[in-house]
Amino acid sequence: MLTLFAHDGDNAWSGGHSYYYENVTQFSHNAANAGYTPTTVATYLEHHPVPMDDIVHVEDGGWVNADGDFGSPQYINWNWPPVNQAGQFDIPNGWAEDERNWAILTATQNIVETAEQISGPADPEKIVYPLSGANDVERAWHFLLAGYESGYMYYGTSLDMEIKATLACNKAIDSAHPVASSGTDLTSPTIWLPQRLPWNPGGMGGGSLWGYPGGDGQQMDSDFHIWTYAFDHSGLERVELMVREDIDGVNGPSNDNETYAGGADVGSWSSITMNLSIMPMDEPWEMGGVDFTVLPYTIANKYWVELIDYENILLDYYIEAEDVNGNIKRSPIQHVYVGENSGSSSSGFVMDGEQDDAPLVASGDYLTLRVTRDENLLYVSVPGVGQTNNVDHFIVITDGSGVDRVAPWAKAGLFHDWDYFLAAENDNYWCGWFDTYETVQSGAAFASAHGTVLEGVLDLELLYGGSVPEELYIAAASYSTEDGGDLKDQAPVGNGDGNVSIDEFYLLTDISGVDTPVQFSKISLHPNPFNPEVIIKLTLPEASEIELSVYDTAGRLVRTLNHYASTPGTSLLHWDGTDNNGASCPSGVYLFKANGNLVTRGTLVK
């Protein structure tokens, strides 16, 4: 077996002098001591020549230490899966800037290949040096190959990177299209290498896609999507996914898994017509930082399929496309082992970025905090960062001990000491759990997802053992996304000083018991601002005793209102703007607590 190490050639840990002479100076000696033979590719092939009729299998690997990629065999920094407007993975309807580049390149490549098929072979030297008498096809290749520059995708929206692949492809089409349209098209369609999400269905997922989990990573569902971009200059007749099941569960030495013909170790191919999603020329929705000042002449469309109900089986698959002239193209054969369908749910809670059934317990200006519990599982959620603009979202849980400390992620202000927090980042929609040391957490005690909402589950028994607190304090907050960003909103509402102290948390009681305490499904003030009277509207899931307390921003109790709701539903409380002594309250912001929990605030204006 040959293991090939590939290294970034221009960074601090590069594949040249600084790598071997500064970072891994004993690499070769340690490899030899472990029984390996350090060598180079050229030397290896010289000692072990490969027969011309041999079949070579290349196993997927990961690029370690590539910024934002961290071991992904998909090279995610250049190929982020499609997402919807909320940042949630959405293969059928989603969009990603880098994938759009691949769609443009795929279409242009087919036009240039068709032009070369009609005009005859291109001269590589004239492709490199087109000023030396290159023809239209050679000039087209010259521009197209420049469009595959990795920096255009790696640097994303920096400067004008988002349009450079388009510029290169448009220049290539200017030269190639007249030639491609001048003769008979015998060129097969062009298919982008098939993509897959999750990469490890039914197994564990890690890396930037799932929030850099350590240890075993996060559990993936066994259902998965396969998608590609396909294009033909004359038009496509069909695009199909071909799938077959392995017989013995091993991609063995027979090479049956590596050939289209197969053999005794694999089953027969099944064909699945792939779904079509039209790719827009422009951005599908308004995106900050994206500025397509130049649009492509043409673009390939997306074709996708979701494979479901496979478990504990090795699959081979490839994509086959046929154009209107009967020319057929097959992608390389791909392999995936599908594990057990354990899904990504925790008990009755489903981690899919959509809101589970949980009562609203506190609201801010735009943040809404929902909390519920199923035995030992605590569920929390707030809106996803796609619902706001330029802010990171946090859900913080503490047993109430400790003192105020610097806010998480080095944000401005103070935050009461936490046991765990769940966070989502505005710039890349990343989310994950952290402990008190701000170390990323994963494993059976933690689950999370990010989409329309940022949601998470904590297994309290696993985290606290036999010492589950009787009370937990929970707060949501949003901060400007940059380092040192200031506090923008919080739920429950705070006193406006830029800090989140323990009296600004929602209090969940009787954690160690079975009964979930009464929660408020909804609370609102009408009108707000008010002068001097206000109606407090509470929506309750069950009959409840309510004590509503009004405080000023200095934390002083102003007025207490008691109410008993004999039935579930809406209850109305009235405050006339006076304190417990009957005196009129001055203009200002007032905080409303229901049964001890800070739930909303209002402004008295005179």
Description:
- 15% of the residues lie in helices and 32% in strands.
- The relative contact order is 0.09.
- The model is unreliable at 512-518 (pLDDT under 50).
- Strand 21 (420-424) and strand 22 (431-435) form a beta hairpin.
- Helix 4 (97-119) packs antiparallel against helix 6.
- The chain contains 9 helices and 35 strands.
- The chain is of the alpha+beta class.
- Strands 18, 21, 22, 23, 26, 27 and 28 form a 7-stranded antiparallel sheet that branches.
Main attributes of the structure:
elongated; 9 helices; 32% strand; 35 strands; alpha+beta; 606 residues; 5-stranded antiparallel beta sheet; 7-stranded antiparallel beta sheet
Concise summary:
The protein has 606 residues and is an alpha+beta fold. The strands form nine sheets. Strands 18, 21, 22, 23, 26, 27 and 28 form a seven-stranded antiparallel beta sheet that branches. Strands 1, 2, 5, 8 and 9 form a five-stranded antiparallel beta sheet that branches.
The percentage helix is 10-25%
Distance between the termini: 81 Å
The biggest beta sheet is recorded as:
7 strands, antiparallel
**Tally of separate helices:** 9
Give the beta-strand count. Answer: 35
Shape: elongated
Radius of gyration based on Cα positions: 30 Å
What are the segments in which pLDDT stays under 50 over at least 5 consecutive residues?
512-518
Strand content: 25-35%
- State mean pLDDT (0 to 100 scale): 85
Could you say which structural class the secondary elements and strand pairing correspond to?
A: alpha+beta
